[in-house]
Design a protein that fits this description.
Helices cover about 45% and strands about 15% of the residues. With about 350 residues, the protein is an alpha+beta fold. A 3-stranded antiparallel beta sheet has the order 1-2-7, with no helix packed on it. Strands 4-3-8 form a 3-stranded mixed beta sheet, with no helix packed on it. Strands 5-6 form a two-stranded antiparallel ribbon.
Length: about 350
């Protein structure tokens, strides 16, 4: 019976200002605060510590005449059964008295479990059959589509790598016309490889953060745990970013690997740090408590140049020594002439 009563109770965010009964308006002018506290288990010689683990607000409507207040702003409430609600007349001024009361109750809920009320699911029926059915259909269709695309692509690549069918390739249309130019090294290979390395670094960081959060290690109760974990992981993932950036840089026929490693370690973090520092200066100017303290900025700089930079250099060194990626098709010696573009295809318009 107690469990049924608990299920009947419905919690809301905030409380209603009042209610209507027919054509009459009634105002909630009394709030009952119920504060639940948990007593920590300590040794006999130590004092007990109490932590607030939950609170509830119960609004009530009590008529002005039933509220009795004294000079010290203390009031006595009538019995719940014998009090009439406070009616509001919208056509005239209403004299009101707002009151509140506080009740303390001991709770068995521990401090670490205080979020469970919000995190528990109301509908526990998971439709496993529908989920598995959808996953199987998606994988089946994806597999068929992948097989068709891979077979077509292999056939095209085999044709492109033949020496004697230049006439056949001339008949190609659309995106296949540029098959001999797509693997040509770009104008700025160092910047491209640096951005790819930063992307790999971010990807590894996000993947591990999501996995750790999925295991429940990053609780919302510990403030800043998510951001701290993300910053540390980004610094340590520099070895993977540097490895892939170095290998791509060698594939693009680059030879200044030390400069490339420095660019990978400083380009993206430098832009982000610069923007955050400028914004933080404005927050400092407003004397906001949300500003990042100066020692924290110095600590981030030390981590950047003390952890991330050496790891990027390490990964870049091993990535640059690896064999470059093999391109599936040959690159034409003479670049294909780009036809004159229309005005709306201009890069500034774009």
């Amino acid at each position: 019976e107690e469990k049924k009563k608990e299920k009947d109770v419905q919690f809301e965010h905030g409380y209603r200002l009042g209610f209507m009964d027919g054509n009459k308006f009634y105002l909630h002018n009394h709030l009952s605060f119920i504060l639940y506290y948990h007593r920590e288990d300590v040794e006999e010689s130590q004092e007990h510590t109490y932590r607030v683990v939950r609170f509830e607000v119960v609004p009530q409507s009590i008529k002005l005449e039933d509220l009795k207040a004294d000079e010290k702003s203390m009031c006595t409430l009538p019995e719940a059964t014998g009090s009439a609600p406070q009616e509001i007349d919208p056509t005239k001024e209403n004299q009101l008295l707002f009151t509140y009361s506080v009740h303390w109750e001991e709770s068995d809920i521990k401090w670490a479990s205080r979020w469970d009320t919000y995190l528990t699911m109301s509908d526990v029926q998971i439709h496993w059959f529908s989920i598995i059915n959808s996953v199987v259909v998606v994988f089946f269709l994806s597999g068929i589509l992948s097989m068709i695309i891979i077979r077509t692509l292999r056939k095209d690549i085999a044709n492109y790598n033949k020496e004697d069918d230049i006439e056949d390739t001339m008949e190609e249309s659309g995106w296949k016309l540029v098959h001999g130019d797509v693997f040509r090294p770009p104008q700025y290979p160092m910047i491209l490889s640096s951005l790819l390395g930063s992307g790999i670094q971010l990807f590894c960081m996000i993947l591990i953060v999501i996995f750790v959060a999925m295991l429940g290690m990053l609780s919302p109760s510990s403030r800043g745990a998510l951001m701290t974990t993300a910053c540390f992981l980004f610094m340590f993932m520099g070895v993977f970013g540097g490895f892939f950036a170095g290998r791509l840089y060698r594939t693009l026929k680059g030879h200044r690997w030390k400069k490339g490693a420095f660019c990978t370690a400083t380009l993206y973090p430098g832009v982000v740090f610069g923007i955050c520092f400028v914004l933080n200066c404005f927050i400092w100017g407003k004397h906001s408590s949300g500003a990042v303290p100066f020692p924290t900025m110095v600590a981030l700089l030390c981590m950047w140049f003390g952890i991330s930079l050496p790891l990027v250099y390490l990964g870049y060194y091993f990535g640059f020594r690896k064999q470059p990626y093999d391109n599936p098709v040959r690159t034409n010696q003479i670049p294909r002439q780009i036809p004159e573009q229309r005005w709306y295809m201009n890069k500034f318009v774009g």
